[in-house]
Amino acid sequence: NSIRLLVADVDPATGSFTELDRRMTIVRLGQGVDRTGRLAPEALERTFAACRAYAAVIEELGATRIRFVATSASRDAENSADFVAGVRDILGVEPEVITGDQEAQLSFDGATKELAGSDHLAKPYLVVDIGGG
Predict the structure, then answer these.
(1) Same domain, yes or no, for 55 and 67?
(2) Are residues 19 and 77 in the same domain?
(3) pLDDT at residue 133 above 60?
(4) Are residues 90 and 104 in the same domain?
(5) What Pfam families would the database entry show (predicted)?
(6) How would residue 108 be classed by pLDDT, with cut points 50, 70 and 90?
(7) Structure confidence at residue 60 (pLDDT)
(8) Which of 62, 58, 73, 92 is closest to 26 using CA atoms?
(9) Which helix H or strand E contains 9, and what residues bound it?
(10) Is 86:51 a contact under the CB 8 Å cutoff?
(11) Mean pLDDT of 1-20
């Protein structure tokens, strides 16, 4: 599993944004969760290390609003409260744990964003997301 960061300037009038920074770190948060039902301590530490690195970028770029969205691994684990507490301690925000349906919609929206503005591609679209769990 990966953790992604997008820092952007958003125009409140139009909702459009200018990307300031975008990155992704593979943390394998879901490592072993299917087998044990728990987030592994080393997976949590990798995730928290990425959060600390991202916190430095957020501070450097002066971002004032932070949204942290979490998906399946944090939904399914018995010790998801440890994950939530760690993220809150590092970034100062409560992770928003979204449903599987919300996750699918956001994945679809992200995958088709560029297609939606193109006159060259006919609808409907088929999107396949192999996911991580």
Answers:
(1) yes
(2) yes
(3) no
(4) no
(5) Ppx-GppA
(6) confident
(7) 97
(8) 73
(9) strand 2-10
(10) yes
(11) 92
In the predicted model, what is the mean pLDDT of residues 2-26?
Answer: 94
Structural domain of residue 18, as residue ranges?
A: 2-98
Overall domain count for the chain: 2
Long-range contacts made by residues 94-100, C-beta under 8 angstroms, separation at least 24?
94/68, 95/68, 95/69, 95/70, 96/67, 96/68, 96/69, 96/70, 97/70, 97/71, 98/69, 98/70, 98/71, 99/75, 100/72, 100/75
Cα separation, 20 vs 41, whole angstroms: 32
Residues 45 and 26 grouped into a single domain: yes
Q: Report pTM.
A: 0.83
Residue 113 pLDDT exceeds 90? no
Going from the C-alpha of 55 to that of each of 58, 68, 124, the distances in angstroms are 5, 12, 39
Look up the CATH number of the domain holding residue 61.
3.30.420.40
